[in-house]
Structures are given as C-alpha cells and as structure tokens.
Amino acid sequence: MYSFDLVRPTSMEDAVAALGQEDSQPLSGGQTLIPTLKQRLAMPSTLVSLSAIAELKGVSVDGNTLTIGGGTTHAEVAAEAGAYPGLAALAGQIGDPAVRNRGTIGGSLANNDPSACYPAAALGSGATIVTNTREVAADDYFQGMFATALEENEIVTAVKFPIPEKAAYIKFQQPASRFALVGVFVSKGADGVRVAVTGASNDGVFRWSEAEEALNGNFAADAVEALSAPSGADMISDLHGSGDYRAHLVKVMTKRAVAKANG
Amino acid sequence: MPKDHGIGASPKRREDARFLTGAGQYTDDINIHNQAYVHFLRSDVAHGKITNIDTTEAAEMPGVVRIFTGADFEGIGGLPCGWEITDKNGDPMKEPAHPVLAQGKVRHVGDPIAAVVADSLEEARNAAEAIVVDIEDLPAVVNMKAALTSDSALVHDDLSDNLCYDWQFGSDTEVVEKAFSEAAHVTTLELVNNRLIANPMEPRVAVGDYARANDESTLYTTSQNPHVIRLLMGAFVLGIPEHKLRVVAPDVGGGFGTKIFHYAEEAFCTFAARQINRAVKWTSTRSEAFMSDAHGRDHVTKIELALDADNNFTALRTDTYANMGAYLSTFSTSVPTWLHGTLMAGNYRTPAVQVNVKAVFTNTVPVDAYRGAGRPEATYSLERVIDKAARELGVDPIKLRRQNFITQFPYATPVAVEYDTGDYVATMDKMEELMDLGNFDARRKESEAKGKLRGLGINCFIEACGIAPSNLVGQLGARAGLYDAATVRVNATGSISVMVGAHSHGQGHETVFPQVVAEMLGIDDSLIDIVHGDTSKIPFGMGTYGSRSLAVCGSAMVRATEKIINKAKKIAAHLLEASEADIELKDGQFSVAGTDKSVAWGDVTLAAYVPHNYPLEDIEPGLEETAFYDPANFTYPAGAYACEVELDPETGEVKIEKFVSSDDFGNVINPMIVEGQVHGGIAQGIGQALLENASYDENGQLLSASYMDYAMPRADDLPMMANYVVDHSCQTPCTHNPLGVKGCGEAGAIGSPPTVVNAVIDALHSGGHKVEHIDMPVTPSRVWAAMQA
Ligand SMILES: Cc1cc2nc3c(=O)[nH]c(=O)nc-3n(C[C@H](O)[C@H](O)[C@H](O)COP(=O)(O)OP(=O)(O)OC[C@H]3O[C@@H](n4cnc5c(N)ncnc54)[C@H](O)[C@@H]3O)c2cc1C
C-alpha cells in the first residue's frame, strides 16, 4: 500500500467536494479497493470514505419499488430486503460474513466485476442506478468488464429495484474465489421476463435474450431446456473452465433459476 | 472408561489456550530494538538474463539503509541440497548453484533479484520500485518433457541439459520385462500428480539479529527444524560456526513440509544483520508465499501393472517425470526417489517392481516435500492403476486388493524396505464395516432418483514414517543423520522441562509429549513442559516432518526418561536404605518391594539437588539426562480408505458424501490429536483431489497466484462430521521403537486423493460414461469435459 489521506465526510456535499481533489477516490466497504491498494495497483492520494454518510444507507420499500442506499452492506440487504426475496438471497450468498458485513451494493456496482453477483440482479431486475447527478437504467449502466456509465467521481447513491412477481438467482461458484463462475438472475415482472448472466462473458454481465423470449411464452424450466446453450466463443475461458463449459452452465443455471423462482 | 491422563487419554491441547487467546509468540511478533526491514525485489519473468541492475536512485531514497544484489553474495555459499541422488549410470545428480540473490540470471517468477533494507517496510518497498533492472527474456522452460528435448533452453547454462538425474530402482529390467511379456493382462495409466502450494496459515518470516559484542548471530524463523537450518546456513552458506549461531523457531503457524527447507530469505536476514549491525526483518506477504515457498508434488507418471490369469499382480513398472523447479530445494531430490520409489509396492505382494524417475529443472518455483512427500505420489499412481485394472477385468476392486495383500510380516518388498508389521485385512474389514457397504446400492438409487450419480472409491496405502535410520539414509545419499534427541531436566521440586528436537507447529507436542513422561513416572502431567524450537535451549534435533516426532524424538524422550528413572531409583534406594534392585516406581512413589517403605518423587528430586543425604561417591548430584535415538527402521502406518461421492452430471460438480479412514498407526498416545491429524490430512488430500492446482502458463507465469484462483478446501467441501469417520482401532504396534508408535501426520493426505478420484470414476461409469481417468484436481469443468468426450 502507498500512503494516502483518508477523509470521512458525513454528507454527500462534503463527499463530492472531497472527490473534486486530484487523485481522490471513493472508499466504501473496501473489499475490492483495499486488496488493490495492498498490491500497490492503485495510488490514490485521498480516499473519501462513504461510510459515515447516513443517506447512503438502508433499505426502503415504496409501493412496488425497493430502494437500497449505495452504502448499504450485503449483510443489511440480506437481512432487510425481505420484500424482494430473490435479491435478499443473492446478497446473502456474496463472499463470506466478513465480506458481507463490509462490502456494499454501491461498491459492487461501481466496480462491475465480470463475476460479481449484484450486476446480475440489477440487470436482471431492470433496476435503476441512482447517482449524485442522475438516474441510469441498468440496461445502459453496464458497459463491459469493470466498465460502467459512471463518470469520474460520480457516486452511486442508491439502486431502485422494481419488485417482480417472481425472481431467483443461481450462482455456480468458481471454486477458489467463490465469485460466480456463472450466475444467472431471472425475474418475471410487469415488463416481462429478464435473464441476466454474470461470470460468463468477456463483455461482463449480459441479458440472454433467447431465454427471455422463450420464458415470456412459458415461464418454466422446460422452456429453457428446449433452447441450445449460447455460444461459448465469447465466453471467458480460464483455469476454471472453458468458454464452452461456461456457455453450458448458463443454460443449466437459467433452468435452475426458473425452477427456483417458480418455487 | 477411557483414561483421563497419560498414554491413551485425550486431554485438550494445552497450547490452544495461548493460540486461541492471541498469546502465541510467532516470528512476526518478534521485534528487535532498531530493527530494519527488508523487501525483496523479485523477478516477474520466468527466465531471463540480468543485463543491468542500477540501484543508484533507489539508494538515495528516504530510509534506505543498504541495497544488496547478487554481487554482494559472490564468494558466499549458495543454498545447499541435503540429499545426493545417484543416477542410474552411477553418476551423481546435477547440482547447480542456488544463490541467495540471483546472479546473472533469473530462473522463476519470484526469484529474488535485489534486497532493499530500510528503516521501514514502506520505505523498502518504495525504494525497490526505483531500482532499474534490465532483463533480457529467455524462453521459459515449463513443460518437463519439452525440457528434456535437445532444443530446449537451459535453466542452468553450466549444465548440459535440464535433467537433474535419471534414477532407476527396484527389480532388474529383464525380470520386469519377462513378467510383463508373460502377463495375462496389463493395465496402463498415465497421470499427473498436480503441483500444490502448501499454504500454511502463517506465511514465512525471518528476523536476523547480530550481537557485535560477542560476534553472535541469531535467526528467528518460521522453521520446522531450527537445528537443520543452523547446520545448513552456518556451515554451507554463511560460514558461521554453530557456537556463534542461534536459530529460534518460536510458535509456527503450520508448515506441512514447506517450512523444513533452508530459504534464501533466512540466509539473507542473518547475513545482512551482520553487515549493517542491525536486526533485519522479513515478513512474507501471501503473494510472495505463492511464488517463494517450495511447492509440492508435480509428477507426470506412466504406470503399468501386470497380472496373471488369476488376477495376481506379477509386476509393476513406473516412469515418472518429477519437477524440481528452478533450483534444488533442501530435500527436493529425495522426494521422488527414496520417499516415493520405496513405497511403490504398496500393500501388495507384487514380486517385481521397478521405478524410473527423471528429475527435471524448469523455470518454476522449486518443488520439495509437502505433507506425505513422495508417498502420496506413489499411492496415487498405484491405487489408480489397480482400480483401472479391476474395472478392465470386471472384478471387485476390494477383492482384487485383498487377493494381493501382503499378509506375512516382516516383509521385504522388491523396492528395498522391510515392513515390520501390519494387518491390511483388518483395516480393510474395519473400513467396510464403517462404510456400510451393504447398503451402497440403495444409496446409489437414492442419488439417481435425484438425477445424481453416486460413486464409491476404495484405496489402500502404506507409508514409511518415523524418518529415518541414519546409516541407511546415509547409504542412500542423505547428507545428514535422521536421529533425534531429548533432554529431560528434572528440577529440584520435581517439575520437569523436556527439551525436544521435534518442533511443534500445530501437531500438539506440548500436550502429547508430557502425557508419555507423566505415564512413565506416574506423576501429574501438569508438572511437565516441553521446550522446543531454540538451538540454544535444546540439545540437538532434526525437527518435525515425515511423521517422525513421536516415533523418533518421542523415543529419545523415553530413553532419557528411562535414564532418569534409573538414577532416581538409585537415589531412592539410598534414601530408603534399600537395594536398588528392590525399588519400584508407581504413581510417583518409589517403594521397596514387599514393604510399606516409600519415598515420593519430589523427595527424590529434592535430594538430587540438595544432596545432604546422597550417595555422592556413586552418582553425581542433579537429575538431568539426554538421549539420542536413531531408529532401527522406518515405521509403516497403513490403512484402507473409502469415500462416496455424489456427482451432478449436469455441471460436473462432485460432493463428498461420506469419507471413512481406517488406519493402523500402532499405539496411539492421544486419540483426539490423532483424529485431528487425520481429519486435517484428509482435508488436504481432498483439496488436492478436487480443488488445488498450482498452474503455470507456457511463459512460466503462475496463473493461480492468489486465493482468487488457488482453491483451498473449506469446511463445506468436506463431508459433515458424522460422515467423516476416522478410525484407528486397528493397531499393530511398531516392533522397533519403545512406544510402538508409527506416526499419523501424513496418512490422511496420502490416502485420500486416490480414494476420491476412484469414487469419481466409479460414479461416471455408473452413469454410462466410460471415462478412465481425470487428472487432479477433478474440478467440475474437467468432469464435464471428460463427459463430453
Ligand atoms: C473474499 C471476497 C469474496 C467476495 N465474493 C464475492 C461474491 O461472491 N460475489 C460478489 O459479487 N462479490 C464478491 N466480493 C466483492 C464484494 O462484494 C465487494 O464488496 C464489492 O465488490 C465492492 O464493494 P465495496 O463496498 O467493498 O467497495 P470498495 O472496495 O470500497 O470499492 C470498490 C470500487 O468502487 C468504488 N466505489 C465504492 N463505492 C462507490 C460508490 N458508492 N459510488 C461510486 N464508486 C464507488 C471505489 O472507488 C472502488 O473503485 C468478494 C470480495 C472478497 C474480498
């Protein structure tokens, strides 16, 4: 780690001001950023901790919308997002208790790791990412591995999830990191079925449109069974599995997610 | 009623109180006044020529005390190899130099190029980034077979090729060939024993200190054998005589073999402290551990088994490539040879066995002993080929093994060693009972009803532990003796310190060793402490590895305690005015046989130190005895293991539903600790079978260089405790050591990998998938790929 200054503002205003300084960077749960700093892979001069900003925290329900503050930890979502059980269950499967008690939804979505779980939930629910300056639809937000629509120093302040009729997430764990080797989030809501896949693609989280189409006609595991798996050509191929294997898992996990959503 | 103290009891581990309350004293807890910190600049390429190192700018940076490079170590010894292997042509192995800091070339990712010593670690790291190193990339030698072709790059330019040795052992070639030509059936299997990284919880640490006043150096280090480090580093690397060099290995957080070896960082810190007249500390990061701790295993083997028409094994032949990595680590050369080849007969009567091993230099981290060291590799090859033979012949794998078991002891195999005792039928019977094999078919049907495949894996193994008879290993090329030593120091008031050469880094010696002495003397074990891990406190010791602590060092402790008893009886006889021959020791009381006259342990010990009424003309005052013990033979723990797996044919995922180990460890001193050792060993073996893989790409970059990619076994990878049964009730005591113990530390890691793989293959066949083999780790993706083929 290189040395850096740490500031801990209590308001968004102060945070935005602090982030205006050169080489400053937001710090949320630190579960991604701190390991990066330890490896000396980043060299911010100031870390602006978001952990003391009350308005970034908490889970609330308004009608059919569940809103999660950007600084809300995975453990809090797992415990408090009961109105959206598929999402609460996803949060409860991220990492281990230490990670869940520190890591936050804002940090996860800002980072957009191609194997992370929340991107699948956001894209698979048709969520809206709220920042300090605007609102971005999930469909526009994710722009490939570790790439998002966020501008420099833009802060994810909340995520708004429409609560679907049914939803479920199935994660097939990469054996070492236990991130998703392939994770599939399916939801059936007012605007139809969404199937979002994480872990698999070189382009990060994506929607499997063939499956969505089939499931819009018949929201049943059999409808997925009838499809052929997506092409493995654009899938991640590494130590833990070939592109073809991941493509195969996309289909299996989609099937299982639908079955689970149907309960 | 189980005993509550002494031999056979399971008192809770006394050392755990300090470990669990943060009171342990690990090497990193040691801080010396005014110490400096070293950061090693390590190679990020696998193979290259160092054309230039410029430290000018770095040396000017804040806090920098001194920067060392390979040039500072010219004329200083390299790290020695402790075991010379003789090639099958009679030539000694090739033994290239292993400099403390790279000289001229870097040979693996992680090879240290320069060492920056500074007032703080932060400053050392900052300055290291300012060092300019120019490296001309050379082709990386990674694949062992390719390394032996004539157009391969050379890892060591002064050697003619990348072959360290070509070793052959066992039956004559003609005998083996004849048996194969006459065989009714031959089964052949090619397999990989995957490279592993030991990953002890505590990374390595070294603190070198120097006292100018008396020219004494002290090294605090995370070692399994401080005396071995003192000998190797003092005599071969730095030229410091033993009486001026103290090595301390305090609490050590796990070793698994990888902390046996003498490492460059230890020599560096000791050397640098003398140079700058300040203590120098190094604490490995986890990332450094991945690329500087010696790795384990990494064999590529072809094994052939010949059987006659009645399914008797008639011959066995292996051809193995063993990866040495870039340099010869301390015991690296002995692992694929004497620790592997001599066990290749396994539990079976096979009359002809020949083992061939080519040890190969590559641009990878050095490979050395890791829990089991050579014996897991032997067991894996043998037990996989037997399983395959059973399938090919359509016979029950248990029956095939039973039919070929050695049943008469002692038994000398064609690969040199003589098993003193054992009962392989008994452990197999016990395993079958605990595994409830009669209901396996019903369990398989239940799994199939859920869309899963269930497989049963069987495995037998034998290991050579209690390492080792010195005269024998000396003939085999060891450059050290492998005895051990203990001093029993009885204090005036009767409490006892036992200084032992064994080193406890998780094994629980502090609990177990006192149980033995307490039993022998009939006193409470709370009066007894052991002292270990400091060359200035203990007589001598070869340390802990090879399941040797109790069998070898424990034997020395028994011998020293016997001497104490003999002397104490003389003192008691004097105090009781009786003849020494009539003195009996029971429950801490010395009594005169047939009378009610007695004197307590404490009175005798006090008399020894306050010798007012004492036979000074016959014996010296004091009560302290030392014994060195050199074992007459190895010990041969053996066992039968089984597991059931459930395989998800859609994903290839394998879950272990039940695991049973039936081990024969001879006598057991503390059952709880033995069971813990076996549970842990099996966990590591399951890790090897299903998860762990140190994987290099073709450029010699370690792909699994952190826990993001190197999969360690976790609790949920293992069966629930109720289905994780470790049994040690079959006991054939070792015939040649006083405690009749064989050693239990490695068994689990040796016995479990083939058990798991055999079960996976069985599961696949039950589902109609004719998969003959999958290399470890048997990951979901590999299983799935095998099913597609
Ligand atoms: C052992 C381990 C296991 C894990 N397993 C999983 C898993 O299974 N699934 C999974 O999805 N994730 C997993 N993670 C990642 C974890 O979920 C992290 O919490 C998450 O990726 C980052 O969140 P954070 O709050 O810790 O962010 P930080 O590490 O603090 O920040 C991450 C990045 O986002 C930026 N940032 C942080 N907050 C904001 C914000 N509100 N607005 C804009 N930018 C911001 C930071 O500047 C930084 O660049 C794991 C992590 C660890 C250490």
UniProtKB/TrEMBL annotation, chain A:
The keyword Oxidoreductase applies. Residues 1-166 form the FAD-binding PCMH-type domain. Its EC number is 1.2.7.4. It holds the Pfam family FAD_binding_5. Keywords: FAD, Flavoprotein, Oxidoreductase. GO terms for molecular function: anaerobic carbon-monoxide dehydrogenase activity; FAD binding. PROSITE patterns: FAD_PCMH. This is Carbon-monoxide dehydrogenase medium subunit. It comes from Sagittula marina.
From TrEMBL, chain B:
It comes from the Bacteria. It is an enzyme of class 1 (oxidoreductase). The keyword Oxidoreductase applies. Residues 21-139 form the Aldehyde oxidase/xanthine dehydrogenase a/b hammerhead domain. Coiled coil: none annotated. SUPFAM superfamilies: CO dehydrogenase molybdoprotein N-domain-like, Molybdenum cofactor-binding domain. Keywords: Molybdenum, Oxidoreductase. The keyword Oxidoreductase applies. GO terms for molecular function: anaerobic carbon-monoxide dehydrogenase activity; iron ion binding. PANTHER family: ALDEHYDE OXIDASE 1-RELATED, XANTHINE DEHYDROGENASE. This is Carbon-monoxide dehydrogenase large subunit. The lineage of its organism: Bacteria, Pseudomonadati, Pseudomonadota, Alphaproteobacteria, Rhodobacterales.
